[in-house]
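Is this the right way to post C-alpha cells for a design question? Let me know if I should format differently. Anyway, here goes:
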C-alpha cells in the first residue's frame, strides 16, 4: 500500500518573548501571528520578540494539521530536503528562519567560523553549545537600526581623538599608534593591527574605570543632548538601556546601520554586530554560537572575541548586502539574497498590483515561506484540488522540487 505524502503544508511556529522585544500590538511578530490566527489574543503588556520557523530544539515548528514536529516529519521523509542538502547536512534542515521585533538593543556580538566553532565547542561546551558556524542575514521589514562591522578608520580616529573619556579607556599610546597608522606614518603598524590593540584595550579595561568614564561622558553630553552628532545621540540612547556597559563605548568603533524595508546586512564570520531597533526577517545557520562584546549581562569571552574579530574597516554602504533583482513570472519582483554560505538563501517576492497568479520556482532544497502581506490560495501537485488559504502571517513548509 502506498501513502501519499504532502509536500506543502502549513506550520504553527514558536514565539519567543524575550525582554528586548516590542510589546503588544506594536510588535510585528504579534501582528503576524494574529493575522494568521484571529483567535490569538495579544497581551499589550507582553513582549513578542521573535517568531521561529524551523526545527531548532528551543523553538521547533509543528505541522498545523497533525501537531507533528517538523523535525520528526523531516527525519521520516528526508527526501523533502533535496538530495544535495540531505547529503551535506546529514538529513537536517540547515537553516532557521525568524521574524524579529526589536525594542531594546541586543548584545554586540560576533559568530565564529566553522573551524573556530568546533574548537570553542570542544574547549568550552558550557558556553558554546554546538560546533556549527552561525552566518546570519537580516532583511528589514520596517525602518531598522543595527551595528555592523568597524567604521572607516578615519571616523574611528576622530572619535578617539575628540572623546576624552574614550581615549582614557583605550590609552593614549594606543590612540597615537592608531592615528599614525591611519595617516600612513613611516614605521606605523597596519591599521588592522592597531585597531585590534585599541579594541582589546577597551574590552580589557577595568570595569570600574569603564563605568566611571561612561558616566562622565553621559553627563557631559546630556548638557546639550539635542545638538549632539549622531554617534553621541546613539551613545546616550544606549546608555539609558545599559548604563555602565562597555558596549556603549564600542559604538564609536562600529557602523550605525539604518536600513529601509528590503535592505539587508549579512553578518558573516567574525563580524561584530548588534540589532538596535525595528522589525526584520532573519535567516541563519542552525547554531547558538555567539561571542559577545557588550550591551549584555551575559558571558563575555574577551580573549576569544578580540582574537577572532574581522578588523577590516568599511563604510555603511559596504556593509549592506545588495540582493540580485530578478523578473518573476507575471511581472513579480524577485529579490535574491544569496550570501556565500551553503546553509541558506532568501527570496523576497512582491507581486505587481492586480497580479492574480504566481508560480514559485522549483528548487532542489526545502523552503519555508512566510506571507507578510496580502492573501491567496496556494496550490501544489501534492495537494490535489485542495488549496491552502494563505494570508498575512501564514507559514508554509515546501519540500524540494
Amino acid at each position: 500500500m502506498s501513502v501519499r505524502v504532502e509536500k506543502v503544508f502549513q506550520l504553527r511556529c514558536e514565539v519567543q518573548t524575550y525582554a528586548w522585544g516590542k510589546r503588544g500590538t506594536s510588535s510585528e511578530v504579534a501582528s503576524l501571528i494574529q493575522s494568521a490566527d484571529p483567535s490569538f489574543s495579544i497581551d499589550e503588556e507582553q513582549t513578542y520578540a521573535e517568531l521561529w520557523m524551523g526545527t531548532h530544539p528551543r523553538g521547533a515548528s509543528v505541522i498545523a494539521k497533525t501537531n507533528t514536529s517538523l523535525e520528526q516529519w523531516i527525519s521520516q521523509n528526508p527526501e523533502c530536503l533535496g538530495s544535495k542538502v540531505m547529503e551535506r547536512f546529514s538529513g537536517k534542515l540547515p537553516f532557521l528562519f525568524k521574524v524579529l521585533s526589536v525594542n531594546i538593543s541586543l548584545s554586540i556580538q560576533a559568530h565564529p567560523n566553522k573551524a573556530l566553532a568546533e574548537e570553542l565547542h570542544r574547549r568550552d561546551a558550557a558556553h558554546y553549545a554546538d560546533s556549527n558556524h552561525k552566518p546570519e542575514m537580516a532583511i528589514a521589514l520596517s525602518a531598522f537600526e543595527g551595528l555592523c562591522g568597524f567604521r572607516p578608520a578615519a571616523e574611528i580616529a576622530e572619535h578617539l581623538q575628540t572623546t576624552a573619556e574614550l581615549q582614557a579607556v583605550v590609552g593614549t599610546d594606543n590612540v597615537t599608534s592608531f592615528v599614525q597608522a591611519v595617516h600612513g606614518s613611516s614605521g606605523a603598524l597596519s591599521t588592522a593591527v592597531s585597531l585590534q590593540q585599541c579594541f582589546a584595550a577597551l574590552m580589557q579595561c577595568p570595569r570600574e574605570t569603564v563605568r566611571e568614564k561612561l558616566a562622565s561622558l553621559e553627563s557631559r553630553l546630556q548638557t546639550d543632548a539635542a545638538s549632539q552628532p549622531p554617534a553621541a545621540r546613539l551613545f546616550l540612547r544606549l546608555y539609558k538601556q545599559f548604563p555602565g556597559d562597555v558596549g556603549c563605548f564600542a559604538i564609536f568603533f562600529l557602523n550605525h546601520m539604518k536600513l529601509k524595508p528590503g535592505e539587508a546586512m549579512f553578518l558573516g564570520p567574525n563580524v561584530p554586530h548588534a540589532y538596535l531597533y525595528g522589525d526584520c526577517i532573519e535567516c541563519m545557520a542552525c547554531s547558538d554560537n555567539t561571542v559577545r562584546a557588550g550591551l549584555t549581562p551575559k558571558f563575555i569571552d574577551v580573549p576569544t572575541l578580540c582574537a577572532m574579530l574581522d578588523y577590516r574597516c568599511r563604510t555603511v554602504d559596504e556593509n549592506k548586502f545588495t540582493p540580485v533583482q530578478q523578473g518573476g513570472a507575471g511581472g513579480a519582483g524577485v529579490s535574491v539574497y544569496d550570501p556565500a554560505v551553503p546553509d541558506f538563501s532568501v527570496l523576497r517576492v512582491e507581486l505587481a498590483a492586480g497580479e492574480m497568479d504566481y508560480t514559485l520556482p522549483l528548487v532542489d532544497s526545502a523552503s519555508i515561506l512566510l506571507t507578510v502581506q496580502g492573501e491567496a490560495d496556494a496550490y501544489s501537485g501534492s495537494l490535489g484540488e485542495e488549496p491552502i488559504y494563505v494570508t498575512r502571517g501564514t507559514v508554509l513548509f515546501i519540500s524540494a522540487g
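Format looks fine. Someone answered above. Worth noting: Residues 183 and 276 are 32 Å apart (CA to CA). The first strand starts at residue 8 and ends at 12.
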